[in-house]
Structures are given as structure tokens and as C-alpha cells.
Queue: 2 jobs
Job 1
Amino acid sequence: MRILVINGPNINMLGIREPEIYGSKTYEDLVQFIEDVCAEQGISVSVFQSNHEGAIVDAIQGAYGVYDGIIINPAAYTHTSIAILDALKAVSLPAVEVHLSDINTREDFRRVSYPGMACIKTFSGMGFDSYRHAILFIRNQIFQM
Ligand code: DQA
């Protein structure tokens, strides 16, 4: 089983950006966490981060025929990007949305998620553990297919 984990803009700034919201661990810590959870589960994983919407669309399109599923934290593009929504619909791979913070209890503008409309599940507000839940969920989902 191969999965692609995509992180959107400013996720590379973890540890520096708003630590009271996102915690003090770095992006490198997050990548290590994702790789460790996937290794425990026998899942092959690639982790991709970009600050550019088009690069994220390209990564989703490139996942077609290569990966069995996608886990995506679209970051700020969550609340704006119909292009990312359409890319997820285009490849039609099982996709799970994750957020470190709880997007439903912050500013009103964070309550809408366009990419989430093409995802089978969202895990939000659990820090790095949102990714753990997403990995376990997508593994079960892919096994059932
Ligand atoms: C985020 C939540 C988004 O609203 C925000 O723009 C981010 C990070 C999260 O993981 O909590 O950049 O996706």
C-alpha cells in the first residue's frame, strides 16, 4: 500500500509559526512522525509540502496510478481552493483531510473546506495525532476496497 501525504502552505513553518496554535514541533518532526506511523503499519509513504496551489494540484494529479490514497492538509487552501477540490475529484483516489488545529472552533472563515468535500473523512484539532488517525483510517479504507 502506497500513500501520499500532502501538506500545504506554511506547514513547513511549524515550530516557528503561531506555536500557541500549532505547537513547538517542527515540520521535520512531523515528517518523521508520519514516516514512523506508516512504517509501523507497513505502509509505503511519500510526504510532499508546497506553498503553491498549482504544485499541490500537480502532486494530486501525479498520484493517479501511483498511490492508493492521499492524506492532505491543504492548510490555508482548505478555505479557498476549488482547484484542489477538483484535482481530488479528478483522480478519485480515497482521500482524507487533516488539520493540526480544530478548524471548526477558530475564525468563521475556516469553517468551510473545499478539498474536504472530496474527502471521505476529516481529522482536525489533534495536532500530529490528526495524521495518525488519518493514516489508520485510510489503511482500513483501502483494505476494504
Ligand atoms: C491548518 C488550518 C488552516 O486553517 C490554516 O490555514 C493552516 C493550518 C491546520 O492544520 O490546522 O495553515 O490546516
Note: The radius of gyration is 14 Å.
Job 2
Amino acid sequence: MSVTQLIYRSRKNTLPPNGIFAIQDQARRNNAERDLTGVLLFNRDYFLQCLEGDAEQVTRTFRTISDDPRHREVALIAVGDVAERCFPDWSMGLVDSTSPDLRVALRDVLPGYEFTPEALDATTATTLMQRMRTLSYTR
Ligand code: FAD
């Protein structure tokens, strides 16, 4: 069965304390029910999310996410079918993109490791997700 993978970026709006964990809880609950997996990278200003699963579920969930007032300027970076999931074990992994370990692991994918998703093209974003697949410490 083919798997659709969608990657988007957005700018964070101000979140209450623990706001990021509220998003993760909601995402994990819904995604597990919909057989969706993926990862949500964040820093102070941005989100970068990868969603993977059945095409209709990915599209429907992305539409809901796009309307969420907790972020803005939601922009699709890449969408397409992939041979297998990058994050089969994560209903929604949460990764702080400023983690020093992550910076080291991704330095050849993101030279200078400037985590500004606005500058990410589809190929680099897809490669980044494939690389993250190998980073067990980010679970
Ligand atoms: P909804 O998901 O809107 O569901 C309401 C009802 O509609 C459901 O009970 C169901 O009956 C029906 N429904 C809606 N969509 C589907 C579907 N795909 N399949 C079947 N039935 C459906 N939310 C996620 O779920 N997954 C994420 O990965 C995710 N990532 C987020 C990332 C960011 C940066 C932000 C800001 C938000 C994210 N959210 C995510 C939260 C999302 O924006 C909504 O707030 C959340 O999905 C609302 O969940 P809900 O269960 O209250 O309502």
C-alpha cells in the first residue's frame, strides 16, 4: 500500500505554557486513530511537520491543521507518495530543532544549520525527514 508524505512549515503564534505538549497530545490521539505518523519540529518561531499515511487522511488532517490559530503562514513544502514511512513508530514525534545533537546530525543536510523552514525546498525537506528517521535519540 502506498504511503503519502506531506511536509509543511508555519510560523508559531504565541502559545501558553505547555502549549506545545497540548498540540502533541491532540495529534497523537487523532493520528493513532487515523493510522497517521510523523514528526513535528519546532523552535521559538517555526513549526516544520511531516505527516504520513493514507492520502485522504493526510489531506483531511492537514486541512484541519491549516486552520489552527496556534500558527500562521502555513505553507506546503512537499507532498507525494513514498515507499515507506520515515516515522513508523511515532504517531507524532516532537523534536526541538535547537537540540545540539540534532544540529550535529543534520549539519550536512542543512549547512550552517539555520533552521529557517522558509528556506527549505522540497528535496532538502524530504532528505531531512529521511535523515531524522535514523536519529533514535529524538524519540
Ligand atoms: P478534529 O480533528 O477536527 O475532528 C473533529 C471530528 O471530525 C472528529 O471527531 C471526527 O469525527 C471528524 N474528523 C476530522 N478529521 C477526520 C479524519 N481525518 N478522519 C476521520 N474523522 C475525522 N492534529 C492532529 O490531529 N494531527 C496532527 O498531526 C496535528 N498537528 C498539529 C500541528 C500544529 C503545528 C498545530 C498548531 C496543530 C496540530 N494539530 C494536529 C491540531 C489540529 O490543528 C486540531 O486542533 C486538532 O486536530 C483538532 O482535533 P479534534 O479531535 O478536536 O477535532
Note: The helical segments are 19-34, 55-66, 100-105, 122-132.
